[in-house]
Amino acid sequence: MIRPLNAREHSVALRMIRSATPSPDEADFAAFTPEQRQGWNPPEPISNEQRQIWECRLGEVMVTSRCDCGTCPSIGMRPQNRLDDERRNDQGGDGDWSDRTVLTAGSPGAMLLLFIDDDYPSYLELAPIDEDQSFTDFPEPETVSI
Question: Which contiguous run of DSSP H or E holds residue 21?
């Protein structure tokens, strides 16, 4: 099922790369319990240089998997030069968190996550907020809230 990102997937990922932040952020921290505050390691700020690298590398990835949950259009991605590398994570929640950034955003009825592993986008996830709701496509980029 290897294919290029479609226009909507690319546009949503690009919007997130340009503007989204890792979670939890400082605003989330304000609502943490004392126990959560002790265990929290704030994410590193994302530089403009880093965002430019991710934006360039978005053009180098191919869709290699699709979530089979039936309620979302989430996709896994790998760089074109590593399509056959089974060590390359394209499943979102699994993987090596030591070199991973997860950008978060929202859209009506859903949460959006963009996983970036080794400076390459690796998983674009749309998670419905209501378990009775399902989505067949990613939202229009202009409806994505950061």
Answer: strand 21-22
On whether the CB atoms of residues 123 and 114 are closer than 8 A, the answer is: yes
Side-chain-facing half-sphere of 8: CA atoms under 13 Å:
11
Global pTM? 0.86
User: Whole-angstrom Cα distance, residue 60 to residue 82?
Assistant: 10
Closest CA to 50 of 17, 15, 92, 89: 17
Asked whether the CA dihedral 115, 121, 123, 125 is positive or negative, the reply is: positive
25 vs 11: CA distance, rounded Å: 24
**Contact between 20 and 146 (Cβ < 8 Å):** yes
- Report which residue type is found at 139: P
Distance of alpha carbon 34 from the chain centroid:
28
Distance (Å, rounded) from C-alpha 67 to C-alpha 62? 15
Question: pLDDT tens, 75-108?
Answer: 999 999 888 877 777 776 655 556 788 899 999 9
The one-character DSSP state at 54 is H
Determine whether 57 is exposed, middle or buried from the number of CB atoms within 10 Å of its CB (0-12, 13-18, 19+). Answer: middle
